[in-house]
């Protein structure tokens, strides 16, 4: 497995398409972070420096989007590009049969390819965070505390699991489809669906099952919104956004967008406007993290079983 992994790592880092995508991600991320820093400077003018200012660089939108939104929408492309031709490229070049004729087991091939992709994603995300952290130290002049560093580490783990899901999905399509173009189009189509159309599908399903006949009826509106939110959790993009929100924003007390409270509860919450500690933020997003990792393992497990059961001929 480690032999396959080292060979795939060498292919990734010497691939022209990976280097081009890597440079594109870094360029756009640097521009987004620079604009976010400028907006943070403008927002904090005339005010004393508050806590967790350093994390605002990752969550404050620039001209178009924040760094978290950029990783959520374009991070999957990194996993898709590395995995859409992992297996069918070997079939196309007629090297898969020769590879398996050596003393190499099938599970070592699939495990090595997936592990090499995860290592590459980890190196990209760690390099990106370290570069942006250094730029934040220079531009903001704020040294992050230990809790902010821990929150960035948790965000890094969530991002790696998120991109690994798309890597596993692309490898699955490379196993199922023989054509390189078909596996790439299937992966990109699912990325577009989950990123842009899942919200419409969730709203339509909720309106069908729990229609709202009276907008003034709070119970109907809440039931409809909760059902739509439950359907939208099928999308890893939604899971990633709700999992990273409370981690990078300690003042956020809910992963969802709808929170219905009574006037007395609102009055009592006025006393607790301070930032949450990291363990409390983890309690909020823990179900989302577990569900995202479960989706990643399920997707890779389906590809693993499918690859072991396929017929491979040496021609």
Which descriptors apply to this entry?
mainly alpha, 13 helices, 315 residues
Q: What would you note in describing this structure?
A:
The chain has 315 residues and is mainly α. The chain has one domain. 76% of the residues lie in helices and 0% in strands. It is built from 13 helices and no strands. Helix 4 packs parallel to helix 8 and helix 7 runs antiparallel to helix 13. The protein starts with a helix and ends in a 6-residue tail after the last helix. About 5% of the residues have low confidence.
- Helix vs. strand class: mainly alpha
First-last Cα distance: 24 Å
C-alpha geometry: globular
**Helix and strand pattern:** HHHHHHHHHHHHH
**Hey, roughly how much beta strand do the residues contain?**
under 5%
Characterize the largest beta sheet: strand count, sense, and whether it forms a barrel: none
Helical residue percent? over 70%
Instruction: Indicate the mean pLDDT.
Output: 80
Number of domains: 1
- Total number of strands: 0
Low-confidence stretches: 258-272
TL;DR of this structure?
The protein is mainly alpha-helical. It contains 13 helices and no strands. The protein has one domain.
List the helices and strands and how they pair.
Blueprint: H1 2-14, H2 16-43, H3 53-59, H4 67-83, H5 88-92, H6 96-100, H7 106-140, H8 146-176, H9 180-209, H10 218-232, H11 236-248, H12 263-269, H13 278-309
Helix pairs in contact: 1-7, 2-3, 2-4, 2-7, 4-7, 4-8, 4-9, 4-11, 7-8, 7-13, 8-9, 8-11, 8-13, 9-10, 11-13
């Amino acid at each position: 497995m480690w032999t396959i992994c080292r060979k795939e790592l060498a292919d990734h880092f010497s691939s022209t398409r990976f280097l081009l995508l890597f440079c594109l991600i870094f360029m756009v991320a640097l521009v987004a972070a620079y604009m976010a820093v400028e907006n943070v400077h403008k927002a904090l003018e005339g005010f004393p420096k508050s806590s967790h200012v350093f994390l605002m660089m990752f969550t404050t939108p620039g001209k178009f989007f924040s760094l978290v939104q950029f990783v959520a929408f374009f991070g999957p492309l990194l996993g898709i590009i590395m995995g859409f031709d992992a297996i069918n490229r070997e079939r196309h070049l007629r090297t898969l049969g020769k590879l398996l004729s050596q003393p190499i087991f099938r599970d070592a091939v699939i495990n090595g390819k997936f592990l090499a992709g995860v290592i590459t994603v980890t190196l990209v995300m760690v390099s990106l965070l370290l570069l942006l952290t250094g730029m934040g130290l220079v531009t903001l002049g704020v040294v992050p505390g230990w809790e902010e560093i821990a929150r960035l580490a948790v965000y890094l783990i969530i991002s790696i699991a998120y991109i690994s899901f798309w890597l596993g999905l692309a490898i699955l399509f490379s196993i199922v489809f023989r054509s390189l173009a078909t596996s790439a189009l299937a992966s990109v189509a699912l990325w577009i669906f989950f990123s842009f159309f899942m919200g419409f599908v969730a709203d339509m399903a909720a309106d069908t099952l729990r229609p709202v006949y009276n907008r003034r009826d709070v119970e109907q509106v809440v039931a409809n919104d909760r059902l739509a939110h439950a359907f939208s959790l099928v999308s890893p993009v939604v899971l990633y956004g709700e999992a990273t929100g409370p981690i990078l924003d300690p003042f956020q007390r809910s992963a969802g967008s709808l929170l219905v409270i009574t006037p007395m509860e609102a009055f009592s919450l006025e006393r607790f406007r301070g930032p949450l500690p990291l363990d409390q933020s983890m309690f909020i997003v823990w179900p989302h993290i577990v569900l995202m990792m479960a989706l990643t393992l399920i997707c890779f497990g389906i590809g693993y079983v499918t690859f072991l059961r396929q017929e491979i001929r040496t021609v």
